[in-house]
Write a structure and sequence with these properties.
2 copies of one chain form a homodimer. Chain A is α+β, with helices and mostly antiparallel strands and 409 residues long. Chain A has 11 helices and 15 strands. In chain A, the strands form 2 sheets. In chain A, strands 1, 2, 3, 4, 5, 6, 7, 8 and 9 form a 9-stranded mixed beta sheet that branches. In chain A, strands 13-12-11-14-10-15 form a 6-stranded mixed beta sheet. In chain A, strand 6 and strand 7 form a beta hairpin. In chain A, helix 2 packs parallel to helix 3, helix 5 crosses helix 6 and helix 7 packs across helix 9. Chains A and B meet through helix 8, helix 9, strand 13 and helix 11 of A and helix 8, helix 9, strand 13 and helix 11 of B.
Chain lengths: 409, 409
């Protein structure tokens, strides 16, 4: 491990500041807008939802990340997702960027926009504009300002999610800090994952995107709360170069150090999302080892972590290994069920549940004890090779149903 | 409609009889074995789970249906699924067929076997054998005997599921009767769909399998309770020719009449499974119309009916159209979200919710009224062509979580 975990978030890297406000989009005076600003332009990378139905800010940001290549600010509102809002909604997104650009005296094409909340409602543009104008003079580079921004993007998240690390690159200290929000809702119409990662590393745009795209596959893309891929999912990574390291322009040692640190940030944020899934009582981690290929391990681990029956069993602290084998079987990946070993592991211990496809005659009592921890891991060994993958999810609870069935108030 | 719905089930076609018993596999003296017998050999067709993990009886039946081609009896137990039981479990399956063959004085290669219940436990072979011997002398061709068999294969199903129709073919009355069980469990380790359809039609084995395979695609395969494909799913179709119609050997009018009647049986059974899904309070039907291809309509409708967020909204009687559009968007099918119209329909009326991708400004009150019925339909028009598909599922409820989280007792 070449990086060092520090206290902080999006404001930890040099040159980044943040602000937040209660613009009146959410009810009850909760903060619902966040602004992150870099004092110099950043190279920008992004990954976006694969949903055919894309929210307006996703389209806006894709244009900036793919075509404009640099950015200097991210403005985010919670409460309304600005998805399924047609040309009117896209207009409000552009207007938000325009207002933000004016308040910060930068180009509107360097303002990234994100929204999370109810699908299908139009944004209250006047409140949003007033929110931006209120935030601009409040921008601060303190850890607290970053933390408040992380809180402002929450919907039914129960915990703010942020993390920061330092890593030595070219004898300079490079800092990476990120925040995100998970699957939660104030209104039962939405499920959005948003991640914002800032760094003061000097790195080419091409390698920044490459690092993000590669890391996403092993981190955010391995999370499933309920199998529903949102219309708004966005992860943005901005690098402003203020750490003063020699610019990373090839996949050398510096790139590796940066990648490892970034991957830690993303893994940490991904686990925080899984562990705070709607209504959940436990983080459920699934490792598939001994796979023939990475792809096979990914398919198998995601199938297990997405299975409603398995998730309900985890909630019940029940070592329902049949459901796990079943979920592997319908995943689409080929393997020999008669060779599979399965373990459950947590802070309370590790137990072999099945060996070569049949029960080991394990103690149900011990298994239940292991599964009663707030973080539990299932490890499936398919004994076909050396590839592996880890997926994160959570249990399926009564509270999940309550959150998502309650009539919109 | 060329067929007539009659009161009955598997014993309705000529020559079929049934029996059931409490063999002591389930607790509390509930019936847990069923036997269906044809007095003459039948051509047999079958469709089976696509899960890589296949229960022993699935392997046994596949061999008979694919290689032996005829069958004369089906023996089914509930309580234990005989899945993930290795060579020992396959031996018990073969032993069950052997005991049944002896009791009925037929070849063991003409006995189809099915199991449903807990995964990973071995069958109590002595009780099973005693059950078979008890049932053989009790075989009766009465409607009641068929109904009792339909009850004996239930696990946590709350309703027995059977249906029968008559159809005129070649101036003879052909009868088709079926029973099935849905997703339910006495032990939270299993989810199995079993369907048994009997007919006295004279029809070639090739066309019988063709009719079943085609009909399955539009009926049983369009049901999703929780997205978990079982290790035991099996639908068997036996035809004994006793109706005396000219044997159907080509895809003529007679085949069409038979197919329509069979398809009604399968549709009816599939809807019964969906409407009795674990913990459910409503049957949720999803029609995708105006699709470019049947395949596209199938992908879209199944994605909607499988979405946890949508299912929870149906439970809450909430017209959460954003979730439906979201589920269509991540389905993998291409379409233009800005052209979609969406309706909700039930016995309480029909309401257009979105037009060209945006809200119609519908009345939430009226929508909630429509969604409060025990059978609700969502209709999505993607306006790309003439193809359509219908999928069936149910709402996601607190009771579903309870059933599947409760520690195995």
């Amino acid at each position: 491990m070449s990086y060092k975990i520090i206290d902080g978030g999006v404001t930890s890297p040099k040159g980044f500041s943040a602000a937040s406000t209660a613009a009146g989009i959410k009810k009850e005076g909760r903060t619902d807008m966040a602004l992150v600003y870099s004092e110099v332009p950043c190279v920008a990378a992004g990954t976006f939802t694969t949903n055919v139905v894309k929210a307006a800010p996703v389209k806006w940001d894709q244009d900036i990340v793919y075509n404009k290549l640099t950015a200097q600010a991210v403005v985010c509102n919670s409460g309304i997702a600005n998805a399924c809002t047609g040309t009117e909604g896209y207009g409000y997104c552009a207007e938000t960027a325009k207002v933000t650009a004016k308040a910060l005296n930068i180009s509107e094409e360097s303002v990234l926009v994100a929204s999370t909340g109810v699908i299908g409602q139009q944004l209250p543009m006047e409140r949003l504009a007033a929110g931006v104008e209120a935030m601009a003079p409040l921008l601060k580079d303190t850890t607290e300002a970053g933390t408040e921004a992380a809180k402002a993007i929450m919907t039914t998240d129960t915990k703010k999610k942020e993390v920061a690390v330092e890593v030595e690159i070219g004898q300079k200290t490079v800092t990476i800090g990120g925040m995100c929000k998970g699957s939660g809702m104030i209104h039962p119409n939405m499920c959005t994952m948003l991640g914002f990662v800032m760094t003061d590393a000097a790195i080419s745009r091409k390698l920044l995107q490459k690092a993000l795209s590669a890391s996403i596959e092993d981190t955010f893309n391995m999370v499933s709360i309920d199998g529903d891929t949102s219309t708004n999912d966005t992860v943005l990574l901005l690098a402003n170069g203020m750490a003063g390291n020699p610019e990373i322009t090839e996949e050398n040692e510096d790139y590796q150090a940066f990648y490892e640190a970034l991957n830690y940030i993303n893994t940490c944020l991904a686990r925080k999302i899984a562990g705070d899934g709607e209504g959940c009582t436990a983080l459920f981690e699934v490792k598939v080892i001994g796979a023939e290929s990475k792809e096979q391990a990914v398919i198998l681990s995601k199938s297990i972590v997405t299975s409603s029956l398995t998730k309900a069993a985890i909630y019940g602290h029940d070592a329902n290994w049949g459901r796990i084998l079943c979920a592997m079987g319908y995943s689409g990946a080929q393997f020999d069920p008669d060779k599979v070993d399965l373990y459950f592991e947590s802070a309370a211990g590790k137990l072999k549940i099945i060996e070569n496809g049949v029960s080991t005659g394990y103690s149900e009592e011990v298994a239940t004890k292991i599964l009663s921890e707030p973080e539990v891991t299932a490890i499936a060994d398919v004994k076909m090779g050396d590839a592996q993958a880890t997926a994160w999810g959570c249990d399926l609870t009564h509270e999940y149903v309550s959150i998502n069935a309650d009539y919109r108030s």
